[in-house]
Every structure is written in C-alpha cells, then in structure tokens.
C-alpha cells in the first residue's frame, strides 16, 4: 500500500471547511498538513499511516483521517500558501485533531513524536464517550418526560372515566328514586307518597295534553294548506 493512502485528500480550503461543517458530533477527525519537499513529512509518513490504520480499524473509535498538501507548482494563485499561513503552520507535519467540529489539539509530529498522536486520540476518544453519555442522558430524560406526560394523560382519562361512572350511578339512583316515588314506595309516609304520585300523574297528563294539542294544530295547518292550494289552482272552463 502507498504510504499515506489512509488519509483522504482535501484539495483546497473549501473542502477543509466543508469537512468540518459536515463532521458529526461523535466523530474524531485528524487532519495532516504536509508538503512534498518536507523531509520530516516523508520520515513520519509510515508511522502516521500506521496510527491511521490502527484507529480506522477500531470499531468504536469513529476516527477519520484527512491530509492537506501544499504544492509549489499547483498553487498558482497562492490560495493554499495563504491557507497555511492563516493557520500559523511553520513546521510540518502539522496535525490537527477535532472532535466533531471542535479542535481538540494541534501539534507538530516529527518521527520522534508520532506516538504523542495516540495519546491525543485517546483523549479524543474519552471526549467522545462523554458526548455519548450526555446524548444517552438526554434521550433517557426525554423518554422519562414523555412517560410522565403519558402518565398524566392516562390519569386524566381515568379521572374522567371515574366521573362518568359516578354520574351514571347518580342518574340510576335518581331514576330509581323517581320510580319508587311514582309507585308510592319512597319510604315516606303514605300521604306524602300519594301526593308525589298525584303530582307525577298531573305532569304526565299535562305533557300528553300538550302533545295532543301540537298534533291537532299540525292537522289544522295541513288542512288549511290543502284548502289554499285548491283555491289557487286554475279552474278549467
């Protein structure tokens, strides 16, 4: 394998900015800044590639590796040179380590200091663990809040059902009491029971009379309409 092929190339500053903007919060990003004429970069390349291989194959590391290369011939307008200067890169290989889009560390890694990158990546992995714990805690708290809200809804429904059952029992008791009063078995003295029965009978008679009056009035209106219709109809000569 070609040394450094585990580092995905970022060809210009816009690709670098896009990579950081789209980096998930639970991902480690390692960016290596090199140049073809840098002797220390060539000497550190094999060790840096081994670090990338080790961490890329780790399932839970979620580490991604990139490289930015300064070219003398391919940088016609000096964009990459200005980009390196804006980041104060004076020695190479220069490595930045990000957790999500937040820079955790930036360091120069000659061959004798490449092992420091493993320590920085361990620190980044610990930071990822904190992020995952916080995310899990937010999910648990959200689930607990949803559970409490659902429990409140269930309690409200239960109270409404209890009220409905209570009202149903009241209506049944009132109906039974009315029937008992109407039949003269209300537990009262006979005179009061008879008086209540007579009142209910009078109410029923009044209701029946009103219903009969309404029916009779409707009949009169219908007959009147038919009579008017006959008078309005044209007579045949």
Kindly report the CATH topology of the largest domain: Glutaredoxin
Strand order of the largest sheet: 1-3-2-4-5
H-E string: EHEHEHEEHH
Look at the structure and give the mean pLDDT.
80
CATH top level assignment of the largest domain: Alpha Beta
**Multimer state:** single chain
Pfam family, one: Thioredoxin
Protein name: Thioredoxin domain-containing protein
Domain Thioredoxin: 16-72
Structure description:
This protein has 237 residues and is an alpha/beta fold. The protein folds into 2 domains: 8-133, Glutaredoxin (3-Layer(aba) Sandwich), CATH 3.40.30; 191-231. It is 62% helix and 12% strand. It is built from 5 helices and 5 strands; from the N terminus they run βαβαβαββαα. It has helices at residues 13-21, 39-56, 79-86, 115-182, 190-232; strands spanning 8-9, 28-34, 63-69, 94-99, 102-108. The protein has a 5-stranded mixed beta sheet with strand order 1-3-2-4-5, with helices on one face. A hairpin with a 2-residue loop joins strand 4 (94-99) and strand 5. The longest helix has 68 residues, at 115-182. The radius of gyration is 45 Å and the shape is elongated. It holds the Pfam family Thioredoxin. Residues 16-72 form the Thioredoxin domain. This is Thioredoxin domain-containing protein.
């Amino acid at each position: 394998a070609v040394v450094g092929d585990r580092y995905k190339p970022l060809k210009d500053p816009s690709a670098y900015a896009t990579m950081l903007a789209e980096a998930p919060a639970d991902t480690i990003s390692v960016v290596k800044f090199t140049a073809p004429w840098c002797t220390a970069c060539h000497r550190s390349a094999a060790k840096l590639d081994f670090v990338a291989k080790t961490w890329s194959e780790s399932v839970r590391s979620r580490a991604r590796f990139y490289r930015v290369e300064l070219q003398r011939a391919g940088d016609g307008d000096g964009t990459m040179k200005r980009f390196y200067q804006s980041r104060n890169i004076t020695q190479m290989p220069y490595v930045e380590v990000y957790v999500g889009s937040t820079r955790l560390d930036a360091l120069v890694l000659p061959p004798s200091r490449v092992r420091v990158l493993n320590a920085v990546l361990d620190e980044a992995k610990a930071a990822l663990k904190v992020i995952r714990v916080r995310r899990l805690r937010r999910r648990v708290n959200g689930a607990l809040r949803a559970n409490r809200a659902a429990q409140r809804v269930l309690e409200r429904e239960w109270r409404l059902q209890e009220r409905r059952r209570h009202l149903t029992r009241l209506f049944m008791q009132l109906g039974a009491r009315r029937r008992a009063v109407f039949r003269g078995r209300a537990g009262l003295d006979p005179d009061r029971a008879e008086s209540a029965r007579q009142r209910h009978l009078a109410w029923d008679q009044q209701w029946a009379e009103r219903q009969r009056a309404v029916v009779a009035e409707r009949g009169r209106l219908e007959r009147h309409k038919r009579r008017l219709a006959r008078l309005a109809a044209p007579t045949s000569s």
